[in-house]
Amino acid sequence: SSQRASFSHQPHQPSSTPASKEVWKKGGRMFSILLAVHLALLACTLVSSGAFEKIAVHDYDVFFLLTVMMLIVIVWIIFYLVGTARCPDAILCKDSHAGPIWLRGGLVLFAIFSLVMDVFKIGYYSSFYSCLSAIKIIYPIVQAIFVVVQTYFLWISAKDCVHVHLNITRCGLMLTLTTNLAVWMSAVTDESVHKAHSKLKKNATEEIFRWLLKAGMRSSSAEECNCNSQICQVFKNGYFWLYPFNIEYSLFASAMVYVMWKNVGRFIDHHSHHLNRLKFRLFRRTFFVGIVLGLIVLVSGLGVLILYEVQVNSSTEHSKKIQALTMYYTFNIVCLGLMSLVCIGGSVIYRFDKRDMDRHKNPTRTLDVALLMGAALGQYAISYYSIVAIVASTPRDAISALNLTYALLMIAQHTFQNIFIIEGLHRQPPKEDHKHNSHQKGLYGLTFVNINAVSLRVPESSSSLASNSASGAEAVHPSDLVRSLTAPKKMNWRRKFLREISMFLLLSNIILWIVPAFGARPQFDNDTELNFYGDSMWPAIVDICLPFGIFYRMHAVASLLEVYI
């Protein structure tokens, strides 16, 4: 009896352990948050100050700070992999929801392009190293090492729930998060300055361009040196084209690091966390309608991007610019309208879904919802600014009407898509994937099954059911067996439609990420907003808000892959 009593109290010991550490857990989190806030404010101050000529902060000062931060993060990651992760009882459990294969695969893809960008940067700055500070060449080298080390760290450790070196791990993860955000801010600022210079060079002579640089925005120190060789121009244009991948890499890494920080010291109930393994079933049990429509939108979007770049950037005729804007807005209106309709249809299908809501604690899902809602604010802001400018401006032409429709549909599409994805994130996995017990699985192996014969063999009396329950086996009703035998032969119509909708949304979000990320930005080419808000305020609004809109598309793709595919 004493042994039974001691055994009965054992399951309660793990729950008392985290309760006793709850105060220290909150204190450690608060300290790491304060560290991250101060570092983020310092980095933001230097990055924003380094973009303007009249402020005595140079771009190599920013690069020096980022280099030091990345070196510290590299040292901490090595300490974590060699020391913390190998301690006894360091990782008692893993969060199966953290670091899904889609997110880690996207991280690796963006990391590869980031490394190519760093190679181009090294080649570009090495072309005239004699007139540059050494930190301009050291920075991309350190960034390449940082990307490799961090990608490996997140690939193998994204699911860890660490229970040793808690405060050091929390501070290290917050430093890693802050470093990624600082690199992201630097990349966004550098890209915006480059686009502003390109626009000024296109619309002004060389003398006026140099005067404008002295009056306002700073030029890159590399632009003061001569880059006349063909290979130098290739390196320069190449690394600016690869900036969107580096920007997305920093945001993806920040999201994964935040989930790791939330999981430090966490105990997971294994009964409520199912291990979702990757299953290559992308084209199984589908009508291909969503895939075909999505591919049509994807190919059409690539064509629009190419034509837009050719007509706007390579031609000075006003008619060509109007044609390009009309084509761009028409494509986006059609695409956003279809996406809004299918999201509404998916939400209606959910009304017939019998799956229960998943109410378990899940930091990954909480972060997904927060990122979807937060990143959508960037596009909301651009759309509302556009709506105010179009309504208040005169005269109104066809381009203004298309722009107004585009802004309204952008708001509607983000709203309906967020509702559709968030509702899917809170649904339990489909029951038919894991509800079959061993007795039912054995019956699936039969080539021919007589349903009536199987039903007759199942005991229907209460005594037989009681004896089965007493022996540890689950009681099975004949009607349940009949349903279980026929269930695998067909897929629920609701799941089929949800998968078709998700495939279409996935491909559509990809093209809506590619188009603005690689140059097609009508916000800078449409005169309505520029004339209404001015040449300084409107570009600043777009430069701040548009990266969030671009990140929203990629995060929506990752969420759709995780939930529906």
TrEMBL record:
GO terms for cellular component: plasma membrane. It is a multi-pass membrane protein. Its main location: membrane. The keyword Transmembrane applies. Keywords: Cell membrane, Hydrogen ion transport, Ion channel, Ion transport, Membrane, Transmembrane, Transmembrane helix, Transport. Coiled coil: none annotated. It is found in: Cell membrane. This is Otopetrin-2. InterPro entries: Otopetrin. Residues 1-19 have a biased composition (Polar residues). GO terms for molecular function: proton channel activity. Pfam families: Otopetrin. It comes from the Eukaryota.
